[in-house]
Amino acid sequence: IGISIGTIQPNQIVTITFQVTITNIPPNGVVTNVGSVNFTSQPNPNEPPITETEETPPVNTEIINSIINPAKTSDRNNVDIDDIITYTVTFQNLQTVQLTDIVFTDPIPTGTTFIPNSVTINGVPTSNLDPALGIPLGTLNPSQS
Prior knowledge:
The chain is mainly β and about 140 residues long. It contains no helices and ten strands.
């Protein structure tokens, strides 16, 4: 069983593409794919054909086992006393189902003070929310961020 290619002429390139769906996450978090090609050649017409097998080089694909894909950035790399840092946190639902009851919590770093009413959600200012106490985000639909 396999994919029959037929005869390949000298210097001819044959390209095969196929897709797979991840159904389980391997213990090491990496999907390794190695194929093989069986072929017959007759380099010397005075000798019988030779049947050989060669393996493709392995291709390793890391599975990002994230459901919500959190990311965080800061608007400053260097600060001084009394400077303000704005943190931006994004989430994206990478699943095919809705995620519900989402709460984001972020303890305020030592040496900083949270600025009340500085929280925005999707650009909309919100009041009375504190990341150290948890910010309810509700529901994310598939592919929504």
